[in-house]
Amino acid sequence: MNQKDDDLYNMQTLLNTVKGLPARKMVVVSPYDRATLESISAAHNEDIIMPILIGEEKRIRRSAEQYNIPVNNMEIICSDEENIIERASSLLLEGKAHFVMKGMVRTGYFFHVLLDPRFKIRTERILSHVGMFEITEKKRIFLMSDAAINILPNFTRKIHIVANAVDAAHKLGIGHVKVAMLAALERVKLPAMPATLDAFLMKKFAETGYFERCEIDGPFAFDNALDPEKARTKGIGGDVAGNANIIIVPNIETGNVLYKSITCIQRQDAAGVVLGGTCPIVLTSRSDDFKTKLNSIKFARLLL
User: Fold this and answer.
1) Chain mean pLDDT for the chain
2) Do domains 17-122+278-302 and 128-263 have the same CATH topology?
3) Residue 74, SS3?
4) What is the pLDDT of residues 170-218, one digit of tens each?
5) How far is residue 54's CA from residue 96's CA, in Å, rounded to a whole number?
6) Which of 39, 72, 146, 254 could lock onto 249 through a cystine, CB 3.0 to 4.6 A?
């Protein structure tokens, strides 16, 4: 892993460090689409995971044959559509799988079943999505949260969102994390936009020491959170300005637009997992490509 200045560099180099770790069992819900099957097969061939495929067995095998993806050396559990997520959740509860991946199933329904108290996936924290991206010119990695789970989080929920992302950054190898709280303006001006006020309060809250080895600042616009030159141009100082490891978006719309802009328009690599539960959850869009899904599996394995 190429690391300097307490930052992480080169996303693919980082993700490929997973190859030195023992393979772990990953249960996959409804693995019918090509990108999901290809990513599972690739991760299996690289000894990153031991996949357990749950769904309609005939449909799984038919899709695998259609896309020329071998699944004979993978465990397949046949289940009707109504019980697939329950079967997967039971495997996690019983310790027969280490983490889970969502396939061709609606996100809302997936979490509705997965988070049933029977399966003990919930912890004292809320769930939140953490995305990984790379600044192309510098190969510098940053994380973004939350683009997929929390619609309009209040301040308390944002504390959990920040904590999940900071924990991920530490597990990836960042010692002192720099968190930028995003908003449309870089200052708190009354009557304040809620996002600017939350950013100010989060900075103050971080001073209590709740987050370990972490500095939080804001509000920032997206550009001056990640680009030092943009921050200097606007006269924004501090260690976080232009050098954030993590950016926290104010709401799901902002996060979703940024995520899709990076992956769809700029065609940049990405990875995404959901944290805050008893295990990482590989959550990608059903439209995400093979590489994003494989990256996400590697990301989740690094966080186990």
Assistant:
1) 94
2) no
3) coil
4) 999 999 999 999 999 898 888 778 999 999 999 999 999 999 999 999 9
5) 13
6) 254
pLDDT at 284: 87
Which tokens in the block code for residue 95? 């310790």
Q: What angle do CA 298, 140, 220 make, to 5 degrees?
A: 110
One of 3.40.718.10, 2.70.50.60, 3.40.50.300, 3.40.50.1370 is the CATH number of 128-263, namely 3.40.718.10
Q: Please name the residue that has the structure tokens 């199933």.
A: 105
The domains of the chain are located at: 17-122+278-302, 128-263
Tokens of 156: 């308390």
The two tokens of residue 101 are: 């991946």
pLDDT at 1 over 90: no
Distance CA 30, CA 103 (A): 5
Q: pLDDT tens across 53-111, in order?
A: 999 999 999 999 999 999 999 999 999 888 999 999 999 999 999 999 999 999 999 99
Residues listed for the chain: 304
**CA–CA distance from 280 to each of 61, 232, 290 (Å)?**
27, 37, 19
Neighbours of 141 (CB within 10 A): 24
- Of 137, 113, 115, give the one whose Cα is nearest residue 127: 115
Second-level CATH architecture of 17-122+278-302: 3-Layer(aba) Sandwich (3.40)
Q: How far apart are CA 89 and CA 68, in angstroms?
A: 29
Classify the C-alpha dihedral 70-63-79-98 as positive or negative: positive
- Res. 3: pLDDT tops 60: no
Number of DSSP helices (H) and strands (E) in the chain, helices first: 11, 13
